[in-house]
Amino acid sequence: MNINLDDIEFIKETTLTIRNSRRRTTVPKDIVDKFNLKNGDKIRWILFRDGKIIISKVKKQN
């Protein structure tokens, strides 16, 4: 996957917290605001064989 740096709007690192079977990560405020994420919204994680991950908001079904 080639990424054009001119297409990037935001880069931020967050910490993953693992406690027993619970795994949590913090979504940066800029991302929450940009996508208007609310409690209960779903995000989709796509893992590629080369180790890259794409995360996207799942659109609500009407």
Give short descriptive properties of this protein.
4 strands; mainly beta; 62 residues; 10% helix; Pemi-like Protein 1, Chain: D; globular; 29% strand; two-stranded antiparallel ribbon
Short description:
The protein contains 1 helix and 4 strands; from the N terminus they run ββαββ.
CATH topology: Pemi-like Protein 1, Chain: D
Spatial ordering of strands, largest sheet = 1-2
Shape: globular
Structural class: mainly beta
- CATH architectural type: Ribbon
Number of strands: 4
- The first-level CATH class name: Mainly Beta
Describe the main β-sheet briefly.
Answer: 2 strands, antiparallel
Radius of gyration: 14 Å
- The count of helical stretches stands at 1
Question: What report would you give on this structure?
Answer:
The protein is mostly beta strands. It has one domain: Pemi-like Protein 1, Chain: D (Ribbon). It has one helix at residues 29-34, and strands spanning 16-19, 22-25, 43-47, 53-57. A two-stranded antiparallel sheet has the order 1-2. It has a two-stranded antiparallel ribbon with strand order 3-4. The model has no long low-confidence stretch (mean pLDDT 86).
Question: What's the SSE blueprint?
Answer:
Elements: E1 16-19, E2 22-25, H1 29-34, E3 43-47, E4 53-57
